[in-house]
Amino acid sequence: MDEIQKVLTANLIESLRQIQQYLVLALGASLSAVALLFAPAPRSDSGEGVSLPILSVPVPRAAAHLLLWVFCLVGGFMAGNTAHLSYLIAVKLAPVPGLLAAFQTFPCVATSPPLLVKAGMIYLPPLLSGFAVCWQLRREKAPATAMITILVVLLGAWLQLWMQMPQLTNLIGTPQ
Questions:
Q1: What is the pLDDT of residue 7?
Q2: Please, which residues have CB within 8 angstroms of residue 95's CB and are 6 or more apart in sequence?
């Protein structure tokens, strides 16, 4: 294997890891947003906010929902971009005999054989996050245009991942 193939192989491994990390971030943020919907509200006179793991200070509930939505948005956008780059790398490595078949043993969403695992990791975060944010906006009596805008932006961020992941999976394949 020449040096370029070694670099491309290392880059493909790293990009598959990053896709996994972005999807886990997005899933965690969306599940947290849904859990926040059902968490008991603090008394209005207590001035308590919601603590998020990434922030050192509590924030108001509405701000916490917005931040969790942004985490989900960024996770989907970054996973989509990384999946696109992974696909481009895999196309360059496709002529090397047996190399892409070896990637089928790499544990990640792209090589996961159960369709439900892939579908859950790819479709669940934006659905849960969109539900949580729209529910919160509904509580605050926000206009419908705000909800539609948020959903369009969220789905737009995840669109590239939804288009790239099947292509990447078809190229690399799944374990038999």
A1: 93
A2: none
Nearest to 129 by CA among 67, 69, 52: 69
Q: What is the mean pLDDT of residues 112-131?
A: 85
What's the mean pLDDT in 52-61?
Answer: 76
What residue segments make up the domains of the chain, in order of their start? Answer: 3-41+49-172
Instruction: Give pLDDT, residue 10.
Output: 92
Residue in 127, 34, 114 with CA at minimum distance from that of residue 76: 127
Q: What's the CA gap between 64 and 136, in Å, rounded?
A: 11
DSSP secondary structure letter of residue 42: P
Cβ–Cβ under 8 Å, residues 69 and 146: no
**Which of the 8 DSSP states describes residue 51?**
-
Please name the amino acid found at residue 7.
Answer: V
